[in-house]
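Students often ask what a 'structure token' actually looks like in practice. Rather than answer in the abstract, let us consider Homoserine O-acetyltransferase, a protein of 302 residues. Its sequence is given first.
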Amino acid sequence: MPINIPKKLPAREILENENIFVMDVERANSQDIRPLNILILNLMPEKEKTEAQLLRLLGNTPLQVNIKFLHTASHESKHVSKSHLEQFYTTLEEVKKSDFDGMIITGAPIEHLDFEEVNYWDELTEVMEWSKTHVTSSLHICWGAQAALYYHYGIDKFELPEKCFGVFRHQINHPTIKLVRGFDDEFAAPHSRHTSVSEEQIKSCDDLILLSQSDEAGPFIIISKDEKHIMVTGHLEYDAVTLGQEYQRDCSKGLDICLPEHYYPNNDPNKRPLNQWRSHAHLLFSNWLNYYVYQETPYKWD
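Now compare that with the structural description of the same chain:
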């Protein structure tokens, strides 16, 4: 089944060129089925890239999915046009009375700040609090995962001695849990962050399960025991070239940045990197949509 997105969203052409089935509102309304309504709080600066990455994964399931994009009203985005936000995004105030089957909160390049120093932290905590009664299951990515661990479970992030940057091997701790159904015992995933969270604190929290971790990158997939919150500290949604683009960006700024680890063939930045995580990205998103959203959400919200 297709993903339902606005006709003029720039990501639509990208997805159609990749032969991903997309649908517009008119056709979706003609089908007598109950679609899933997913809210995406996009905190990334280059919003259009993130839109395409997430929609690519959400569109590859047997479920019809309606997407609504959310942005923070208290923060002015500098890397996306005002017209794009006005046409395709909404704010919490406009959706407060609505219910959503699932929500995604993305990462954001603000790890150097304490959570309370982020200028939209109060608004983000309002979203996370609102989600407790208006969202069936929430998927939090990278900084969004760290923010969720801090707000919901009191687990703070800490600064790493050097950036966790590259593609790392991960192991599965609980292979019978539905979120990792179909995963290999060991799999690759990209990371790009300056901070991490404590494996010990996660394991000692009665409300959380550490599903997957990496010897090099630390905790990766964490799920709450009530299945309302899934925290992924890396970026399975990334394209093959995304880490390379980040590396070139930082080099052009004169920043002290190392090559992303285990990324370029033979550590040669002139060679095109291979996507080693695509299948597990699709598995994660399809498992989340199926087992934690579709199977759990009410057909009709009260």
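One point worth highlighting: Residues 142 and 233 are 4 Å apart (CA to CA). Ask yourself how you might have guessed this from the sequence alone, and why that guess would often be unreliable.
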